[in-house]
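Subject: Sanity check before I submit

Could someone independently write out the structure tokens for this chain? I want to compare against mine line by line before I put it in a report. The sequence has 326 residues.
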Amino acid sequence: MKNVRIAFSGMILAAGFGERMLPLTGRIPKPLLPILDTPILELIVRKLMRHGAAEVHCNTCHLSAMIEAFASRHAWPLRLHREEELLGTGGGIGNMRDGVSGADCILLHNGDILSDIPYGPAIERHRERGALVTLVLVPAGPRANVAVGAADEVIAIGESAERLGPGKRLLGYTGLAVLSPDALPFFPRGKKAHLVAILAEMMRKNPGSVIGWNAAEGEIPYVWGDAGSPAGYLGIHRAILVDGARFDPGAEAAPGPVYKGEGANVDPEARFAGFCAIGRRAVVEPRARLENCVVLDDTIVARDTIHSNEILFPEGILKAGGGSNG
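---
Independent answer below. Compare away.
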């Protein structure tokens, strides 16, 4: 029987420990943190499938069983790859590479990133240039850590890019990329490896094979958010509830700056400022005051307490400015 090549395969990197979100991520893996009532992982899978991914592969390590249980409740073409020990970004891709080797290209997506940036133009540029890897970049938002040349070839990444200094075209990596199957042999199986080191090796052996596509070059507005830190997680909710951002085009527009999930019980004497997302079955008691907060499912916000720029969960509070109360 002749092998049938799959047009696109999606690949989600979701194995990390979520250290910037501890202690919250000690109880729930970062890809399952909800944006309003929808887990991040679900939003990413939907996006990849909208852009033509016939199948999606996802690595897991930290709290793998929770991600596996969640995925089993959905009829998605999603295959999970459990790592017994964390292999890093490069090693995680290598651990999944056999599953995507038959694809024409691979749509890579970090498991803590949300955006409405389209993959189509990046795929088109990737194919035109015959690149091994095309990084989706933006001029602002993430740290400017990728240096690109006049022909959009990547010159340096990470600290080596930052050391180039003024006069270089520096952009930020969004956590999205397009990979060719020919790039997969650079990613080792069963070994720890870092993406930056692998890309540097590609650039050394095949100059011009790693390129960047600037999502802002078409002057089409986009939204991008990193849910991997408390400030970033709150920022995504601000963008949705205050600015009307639509990270998922299929989702209904937010009704206003305060969102209440199913079964939430909010006392009439509770007070809100800025934006707030109240999770399912959460309770906000009388005279509690919340400003720019996310209250996760089943959390009780005690009466007469004041909260600002915090993520509240049943076991504690995570402050956007760093630090936590357990």
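---
OP: Matches mine. For the report I'm noting this point. The chain has a mean pLDDT of 90.
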